[in-house]
Structure to design on (304 residues):
């Protein structure tokens, strides 16, 4: 694939700064195409932890760059825009989690990586959509508290013998997808396999033939002999799905499956970030150290 002039400039600046560009599967297509590594939250964290690069340019949302900063305090982690938050991460604060923990002494806290560093610092272990069930099962306690995503907790509760208590947060993009929208799409494409993200509501997940993280979806489609797929997650992933599988057809069940924060960064922002060395994401040591423990415990759990 031929790069545009702006993409070439991104690559030149990355070379000059000895940087690596990590992009989430929901990023704009032109950013996905120019990235060194494209992945889900788990794969991006693991890549950040292992890269020898001096500068990590993180194209995703704030909590993802923060996770890289937690794992790599000696590297420069750049987020090309400051205004890329996550609706879900904002549904719980560290003070709220401390208050809930006080009501549940001895109950370990499993925190979805879609959370602030301060919330991670209050947690026993982190999880992502790709490893949540083995993470919960790795704990010895018969009860766990999951934050901040209600839907991920309900998905997990059906797949573990543990009692799952949860915080009532959600992703406003995935939570908005309705069973009626999915059924209408299934009626229009009766041969298509419906793959959903675990951030969708339980009644939507009930209609799915498979439930996967974003990278799990890419892998499933790559390996599938099926030809048509309904994709129950943010529509940015359709770019790479279509690029990797030109002979397969993909449908989004709703025009609302769009995360505005994931679409804010542009190629021009990346060039500016590398030139100006902004916006550097750092985490104060008193938060970083306990947050790192929770992230490292997660990374040590073997996957299914
Ligand atoms: P993944 O870890 O599956 O890529 O999900 C991240 C996310 O933000 C989902 O909304
Ligand atoms: Fe956060 Fe939802 Fe956007 Fe993912 S899609 S970054 S959970 S608001």
């Amino acid at each position: 694939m031929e790069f545009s002039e702006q993409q070439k400039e991104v690559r030149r600046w990355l070379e000059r700064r000895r940087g690596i560009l990590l992009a989430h599967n929901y990023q704009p297509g032109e950013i996905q195409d120019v990235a060194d590594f494209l992945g889900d939250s788990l794969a991006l964290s693991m890549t950040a932890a292992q890269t020898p690069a001096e500068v990590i340019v993180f194209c995703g949302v704030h909590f993802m760059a923060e996770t890289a900063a937690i794992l790599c305090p000696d590297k420069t982690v750049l987020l090309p825009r400051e205004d890329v938050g996550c609706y879900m991460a904002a549904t719980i604060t560290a003070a709220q989690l401390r208050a809930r923990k006080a009501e549940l002494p001895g109950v370990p806290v499993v925190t979805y990586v879609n959370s602030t560093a301060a919330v991670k610092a209050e947690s026993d272990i982190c999880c992502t959509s790709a490893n949540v069930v083995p993470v919960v099962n790795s704990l010895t306690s018969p009860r766990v508290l999951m934050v901040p995503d209600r839907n991920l907790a309900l998905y997990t509760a059906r797949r573990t013998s543990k009692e799952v208590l949860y915080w009532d947060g959600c992703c406003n993009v995935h939570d908005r997808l309705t069973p009626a929208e999915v059924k209408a799409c299934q009626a229009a494409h009766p041969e298509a396999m419906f793959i959903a993200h675990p951030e969708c509501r339980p009644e939507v997940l009930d209609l799915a033939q498979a439930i996967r993280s974003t990278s799990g979806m890419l892998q499933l489609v790559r390996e599938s002999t099926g030809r048509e797929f309904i994709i129950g997650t943010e529509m940015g992933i359709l770019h790479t799905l279509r690029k990797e599988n030109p002979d397969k057809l993909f449908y989004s069940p709703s025009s609302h499956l769009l995360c505005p924060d994931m679409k804010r960064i542009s190629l021009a922002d990346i060039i500016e970030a590398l030139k100006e060395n902004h916006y550097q994401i750092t985490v104060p040591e008193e938060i970083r150290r306990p947050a790192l423990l929770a992230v490292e415990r997660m990374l040590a759990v073997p996957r299914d």
